């Protein structure tokens, strides 16, 4: 399965660069997700349309964004990005760097709760 066939040239090298330069909160959350929700496949810096999702789980149609200082005063851009991703069928969860670094367990619990809510809703 080739996921990037319709992506512009340079997408894969850019995703690789973003992964290599990922900030510590992103890396910490990804490790936590892989340890606590390891039955799911978590992708890091995966392209979705013109954007790169910080953390993506295709099977759950879930994108997790870790917002650092660069997101301050960019609420409109973040809303527009989230709207695009929702239009592509993804749910978007956003956490601040501060939350991830100081309350990782709470962030992981919020993700798990979101996933449980989805499964309950789909079973009904």
Automatic annotation (TrEMBL):
Q: What are the residue boundaries of the DUF559 domain, all occurrences included?
A: 14-115
The record, for CDD domains, names: Endonuclease_DUF559
Instruction: List the protein's name.
Output: DUF559 domain-containing protein
Q: Which domain of life is it from?
A: Bacteria
* Annotated spans, Disordered: 1-23
Q: Which InterPro entries match?
A: DUF559, Endonuclease_DUF559_bact, Restrct_endonuc-II-like
Question: Any stretches that span the bilayer, and where are they?
Answer: none
